[in-house]
Write a structure and sequence with these properties.
- This protein is of the alpha+beta class and about 160 residues long.
- It is about 45% helix and about 15% strand.
- The protein is built from seven helices and three strands; from the N terminus they run H-H-H-E-E-H-H-H-H-E.
- The protein has a three-stranded antiparallel sheet with strand order 1-2-3.
- A hairpin with a 7-residue loop joins strand 1 and strand 2.
- The longest helix is centred in the N-terminal third of the chain and has 19 residues.
């Protein structure tokens, strides 16, 4: 198992500056006096958030790339990508709320809940994907704000 996270940057210089700023910000949060200054003068106060325009026009793309042997070909390793998109919604605010609502509706509506893998297998401690499976995926794809797809990496265009 290997994990890697990245961000698309327009140049090496922008990548360097972005990394330095995130590192400096993290270092400043480690010390109580600078943490207090950041909370007092820089960070948003409770209840503050993005403005309406950003909430309504924001977007985000999340890609998870993996490789493995498919059920059809026992020996050929193929790369696949799962793509989750926030469309017309700020991912950190409105998009997250929309995703939470869709997941809650999977569990709250009896006609949805009875089709979930968690209900069919008998519950327990489950992750959202094992508890709600394709019922959640279908709800996500019917939403105006969210999209989810999985396919071979070769046929996907990774948008940043």
């Amino acid at each position: 198992f290997a994990y890697n996270e990245s961000d698309a940057c327009s140049s090496k210089w922008n990548a360097f500056v972005g990394t330095a700023v995130v590192g400096l910000f993290g270092a400043l949060l480690l010390f109580p006096p600078t943490r207090w200054l950041l909370a007092r003068f820089l960070l948003p106060k409770p209840g503050e958030g993005p403005d309406e325009k950003l909430r309504e026009t924001g977007f985000g793309n999340v890609y998870v790339v993996g490789s493995g042997v498919s059920a059809n070909s026992k020996h050929e390793k193929k790369k696949a990508v799962a793509h989750f998109a926030f469309t017309k919604a700020d991912p950190g605010y409105k998009g997250t709320a929309a995703l939470a609502v869709e997941a809650a509706l999977c569990l709250a509506l009896p006609h949805e809940r009875c089709k979930t893998p968690g209900a069919l297998r008998g519950g327990g401690v489950l992750t959202p994907s094992t508890a709600m499976g394709n019922v959640l995926v279908d709800r996500i794809n019917k939403s105006d704000l969210l999209r989810f797809s999985v396919g071979e990496l070769g046929e996907k265009e990774l948008r940043v």
